[in-house]
Specification:
- There is one protein chain.
- This protein is α+β, with helices and mostly antiparallel strands.
- It has one domain (17-48, 84-261): Zincin-like (2-Layer Sandwich).
- Helix content is 58%, strand content 9%.
- It is built from 11 helices and 4 strands; from the N terminus they run αααβαβββααααααα.
- Strands 1-2-4-3 form a 4-stranded mixed sheet.
- The longest helix is centred in the N-terminal third of the chain and has 32 residues, at 17-48.
- It is globular, with a radius of gyration of 21 Å.
Length: 262
């Protein structure tokens, strides 16, 4: 840990340095094995033509279901159907709270999904997709499992809705990435700076909706489960990280008149 970083807020737990170090070492070993297996799988796929065969089968499935076989979007979704398994979020208090939050922000929520992410990774995530008045929210089952209560899950969703409300997706589309190769490092630093600013703004948005305490608790829980660095050197994180470290985010949320909200 770097002494130049801000102090830990009162409600955060000490950084599990030993667990984080062991996790990092294990991840590197797994990455080496994963890359070796991936090379073997890719070689088999290329030699035996598995990918073209599976693409043809997915196209036949689209036609069998009575859909337009020439529709590339439907064809692609059918191709990916076996990779990410989505299911509707069951009725209950969590679903009601998310729908109520979306309605209060006039977010055109059409469907609410849970994706089976625990079988592939312990990483937690939530995101939204869709165009115009046809939006969907997807929760990883690991997010629901790792959060202590529904309020923390809703706080994470409030953060994601902040990205939508503040037009961050549109700004990201406008910002053309990885086009100026000679200045790639400078461009990446600028993009990370913009992304980190967006994260602070989305946190502030959730705070204004009254989810400050729940958001802090949710962020701490997710950070502990992900075993990533919590309090890195400010200059290192500013260059390498697209998201601010946990300590900076908690400090900004708890500060009464945070400059991050400007």
């Amino acid at each position: 840990m770097y002494p130049s970083g801000p102090p830990f807020p009162w409600n955060s737990q000490p950084c599990p340095v030993e667990a984080s170090t062991l996790y990092s070492f294990a991840s590197r070993c797994f990455h080496f094995i994963h890359e070796a297996v991936t090379i073997l799988m890719d070689t088999a796929i290329l030699c035996f033509g598995i990918l073209p065969w599976f693409w043809k089968v997915s196209g036949n499935l689209v036609a069998y279901l009575g859909l337009d076989a020439e529709n590339e979007i439907m064809h692609t979704l059918s191709f990916l159907a076996g990779v990410m398994i989505w299911s509707q979020l069951p009725d209950g208090e969590l679903r009601e709270k998310i729908e109520k939050l979306a309605a209060s922000l006039k977010f055109p929520l059409k469907k609410l999904f849970v994706v089976d992410g625990s079988t592939r990774s312990s990483h937690s995530n939530a995101y939204m997709y869709g165009f115009f008045n046809n939006k969907r929210i997807v929760l990883y089952d690991t997010l629901i499992q790792q959060c202590t209560n529904e309020e923390e899950v809703v706080a994470v969703i409030a953060h994601e809705l902040g990205h939508w409300k503040l037009n961050h997706t549109m700004y990201s589309f406008i910002a053309v990435q990885h086009t100026v190769i000679p200045l790639q490092h400078l461009v990446n630093f600028g993009l990370n700076l913009v992304s980190r600013t967006f994260e602070f703004q989305a946190d502030a948005f959730a705070k204004k909706l009254g989810y400050a305490k729940a958001l802090c608790a949710g962020l701490i829980k997710l950070q502990e489960e992900n075993l990533s660095a919590m309090n890195t050197d400010p200059w290192y994180s500013a260059y390498h990280y697209s998201h601010p470290p946990l300590v900076e985010r908690l400090a900004a949320i708890e500060e009464p008149d945070s400059k991050k909200e400007d």
